[in-house]
Structure formats: structure tokens, C-alpha cells
Write a structure and sequence with these properties.
- By secondary structure, the chain is of the alpha+beta class.
- It folds into three domains: 15-64, Tumor Necrosis Factor Receptor, subunit A, domain 2; 70-79 and 86-109, no CATH class; 111-197, Ribbon (Tumor Necrosis Factor Receptor, subunit A, domain 2).
- 21% of the residues lie in helices and 31% in strands.
- The protein is built from one helix and 17 strands.
- The protein has a three-stranded antiparallel β-sheet with strand order 1-3-2, with no helix packed on it. The protein has a two-stranded antiparallel sheet with strand order 4-5. It has a two-stranded antiparallel ribbon with strand order 6-7.
- A hairpin with an 8-residue loop joins strand 8 and strand 9 (87-90).
- The N and C termini lie far apart (169 Å).
- Receptor for TNFSF5/CD40LG. Transduces TRAF6- and MAP3K8-mediated signals that activate ERK in macrophages and B cells, leading to induction of immunoglobulin secretion.
- One of its GO terms (molecular function) is transmembrane signaling receptor activity.
- Residues 10-44, 46-88 form the TNFR-Cys domain.
- Pfam families: TNFR_c6.
- It is a single-pass type I membrane protein.
Length: 222
């Protein structure tokens, strides 16, 4: 220990001043139980359970270990020891918004992309989710890693019931093939009916001519 001789006392590193003397600090993991005297050095005691001291100290009381509050989006990464405090990290779905060295002090929940946006970058333990807006002709419900193109109903042979938006896909109806087949069937039937009608009329006119010829022949004979 160092004792003052009337001049201003300056204690060396890892010592602290008590009245007119310099006492050795207690090492990390301990606390001062009794200051040094002329006949003995500083009396140190280990930090009790639930407390710590991470550097040489002159304090008579160790620091309380902190807890990682799940309600704040934190969980324990490393438990507290007598020489180090508890180390926290973000819960799943959260990212660290304030950190000190390896310890997370504050966490925030990852952003959720809105309908019409896609997840450009997934959130991590240290970064938030990055969202981007869908371009024209595409859609997303907010959970897609990329925007999806609207279904082209006509190209699939289906009727378009509702155009797509930035949040929903296009809604298609029944197959257009059925309607086309029905129309073609009606056209064929009408064509056949027309042909049969023309044939019937031509046949009737032919019979009338034959009758007229026969009557004329009989009259000539008479």
C-alpha cells in the first residue's frame, strides 16, 4: 500500500484511495469487504449469486445480473457469472435495434410486408425485414419472396371474371372451349338444316314441274 507524505496522493492503476493511503482493488469477480490498513491488504469477497463484477473494483457491492425480458423480444444467450453479466439476444421474429458489444439491449419485431408488397430481404437477428412494392401485372399478399404474375385466363382457355390487382390474382371462370364447341355445334346444325330445307324445296319444285309436264302431255293426247 502507498501512504501519503503530505503531497497530493495519486494511486497507481488498480489501486484506490482511502484517506491517506492507496489500497489494492479487488479483482474481477470480487468486491471489497474491508479496506486495507497499515498492517493488511484489502479484504475481498467473491460476488454472491445473482451478481457480478467484470473489472477490478473498489466497490463494496457487486452489480446485479440483468434478466432478458421475453416481453421485450429478448432471450438469454449467455448466463451471468461472477465476472460477466447476462448476455441477451433477440427472440425468433425480432431483431436487435440497440446492441453493446455482443449484448442486445433492445429488440424490435420484424416488419410484416403489406399486401401489394413482397419480401425483398428476410429479417435477421440484426436487421429488419425489407419490403418492396409489386410492379404492374404482378401481385403479392405480403408473404411472398417475390411478386407473382397475374394468371392469363384467356391463354388458358378460360373466361376472365375479375382482373388481377396488386394484392390478388386474376379470377378465371369456366373453360372457353365449352362455349366455342357449343357455338360451333349450333352453326353446324343450322347449316345442315338449311341444306335439308333447300333440298326439300328443290325436290318439291321438281315434282311440280313433272306434274305440269304430265298434265300437258295428257291434254295434247286428248
Amino acid at each position: 500500500m502507498n501512504v501519503s507524505t503530505g503531497q497530493t496522493l495519486t494511486c497507481p492503476q488498480k489501486q484506490y484511495q482511502i484517506n491517506d493511503r492507496c489500497c489494492p482493488m479487488c479483482p474481477a469477480g470480487g468486491r471489497v469487504y474491508a479496506d486495507c490498513t497499515e498492517s493488511r491488504s484489502t479484504d475481498c469477497k467473491p460476488c454472491p449469486e445473482g451478481t457480478f463484477m467484470d473489472h477490478p473494483t473498489s466497490r463494496p457491492v457487486c452489480y446485479n445480473c440483468k434478466s432478458c425480458d421475453e416481453g421485450s423480444g429478448l432471450k438469454m444467450k449467455t448466463s451471468c457469472t461472477i465476472v460477466s453479466d447476462t448476455v441477451c439476444e433477440p427472440l425468433e421474429g425480432f431483431y436487435c435495434s440497440d446492441s453493446r458489444k455482443d449484448d442486445c439491449v433492445e429488440a424490435r419485431k420484424h416488419r410484416r410486408c403489406k399486401p401489394g408488397e413482397y419480401i425483398r430481404e428476410h429479417g435477421t437477428s440484426s436487421t429488419d425485414t425489407v419490403c418492396s412494392i409489386c410492379s404492374d401485372g404482378t401481385f403479392s399478399n405480403g408473404t411472398f419472396p417475390s411478386c407473382q404474375k397475374h394468371t392469363q385466363c384467356e391463354s388458358k382457355g378460360r373466361e376472365l371474371l375479375r382482373p388481377g390487382t396488386e394484392t390478388e390474382d386474376a379470377q378465371c371462370g369456366g373453360l372457353l372451349l365449352h362455349r366455342t364447341v357449343l357455338i360451333n355445334f349450333v352453326v353446324v346444325v343450322m347449316s345442315l338444316f338449311s341444306v335439308l330445307l333447300v333440298c326439300y324445296l328443290n325436290h318439291g319444285q321438281s315434282q311440280n314441274r313433272n306434274e305440269n309436264v304430265r298434265h300437258k302431255y295428257i291434254l295434247e293426247i286428248i
